[in-house]
Amino acid sequence: MIELNEVAAWREYAEAQRDAGRVLGLVPTMGAFHEGHVSLFRAAKAECDVVLVTSFVNPRQFNDADDFARYPATPDLDRALARENGVDCFVAPSLSEMWPDYPDATATTVSVGALGERFEGAGRPGHFDGVASVVAKLFIVTGPCRAYFGEKDFQQLAVIGQMTRDLAFDIDVVGRPIIRDVDGLAFSSRNVRLSALGRPRALGFSRALAAANAALMSASEARATMRAVMEESGIDVAYADVVDPSTLLPSSDEETGERRALVAGVVEGVRLLDNAPVEIKGEVACS
What we know:
Pantoate--beta-alanine Ligase, Chain: A,domain 2, Rossmann fold
């Protein structure tokens, strides 16, 4: 596995792979790898000739300095997992390489507008501008490739897809299913910050999604059910909603069929999120 730290060398490596006729798979990460990341490495390895993983904790997507400072870092384990799972190139650029003006604001920002202002964007102002800006830079440096993202950050995937279409990036964005631990908790780098008491509370996310799927409900019923389960679990609920999976607009009670349930909240000061497909029914009109 080749390890790179400089943007110029990273760009040169990616260009050389394409010049040799190889399909490049990009997996952008913020490090602190878990089984969710590993599933992306394996998917990229199965579908591409070369796998390039980036590891960069992007300060521009954190609106809470303490959250940024406490974000987990496991660089040695990350490199070992990448190597063991067929990653060909591991890129860990420095902060000065990615954002030369930091801590001053960078003049150029990518924003996707309303799609990034709901849900996580509402609770974390500026978050998705930071996400879109750094991913745009990853795409520009890497060039044409297949880029792999997990569906756990469902809104993030939608934002990146919108940006890719709007700016005509020559990138095939690939969303991959959520990977869960044996107890049902979706893998997240932030899970390590949960105590032995906090983790059972965090299972309220997956229980809420399961409850919404247990029987056909209207969108309103599903929202109320998920919120109740989360609150009973001791989660400080940020949102529990049912949305159109393409636009992320809230579903009305007249709609039917498959939608996406999105949940988020705070456990022991740790903000976590989860989601799942949900089948909803429309309200039956009274005669």
